[in-house]
């Protein structure tokens, strides 16, 4: 991967200097996992930060015999930074939803370059603050109607990870259970709302190709209250 592609693909790297990018790529390790494979396990000590080159993963927490999806991440995002910064075991699992390609950079090397490149350090702080803000928005939306909350989830995924297609923005066909978990509504409610949105033509669920087309993104934004 060229440094220009690396910088464009990952917002975290957008302000890093060329020397930083070259060094990170030289020490990065490539990984590929099939759908359903655990990428990181809860209680494992944080020894690397991971960058999603392609595909989709979910961050989940296991409670007894049940698991709850906390977040869905796609191309251009990263994870594992919390465990390496506070030097503690991970509190969540990361599971591949689709075939996923990752780059990992060891904890020692990543922390080393954060101290050497102030711009990268600052950018990482910005993105971590943004995640906190998103978490705050989710808390504020807990009393919103289920359809509004689900539209907000779809819009957020579309804004962060979608690819353009002839049918509009395209995201992975995330299971209704995982969508329900990250939206904090019931699976039955999620199923009914997704089917209704499909009937209205706002989305198009393509099970054969494992994608969801966000056909009428403007209407979804209106429903989510983001316009």
From TrEMBL:
Domain Cyclic nucleotide-binding stretches: 12-131
Domain of life from the UniProt record: Bacteria
Gene3D superfamilies from the UniProt entry: Jelly Rolls, Winged helix-like DNA-binding domain superfamily/Winged helix DNA-binding domain
Keywords: DNA-binding, Transcription, Transcription regulation
MF terms (GO), sorted A to Z: DNA binding; DNA-binding transcription factor activity
Cross-referenced InterPro entries: cNMP-bd_dom, cNMP-bd_dom_sf, Env_Response_Regulators, HTH_CRP, RmlC-like_jellyroll, WH-like_DNA-bd_sf, WH_DNA-bd_sf
Name of the protein described by the UniProt record: Putative transcriptional regulator, Crp/Fnr family
GO cellular component, one term: cytosol
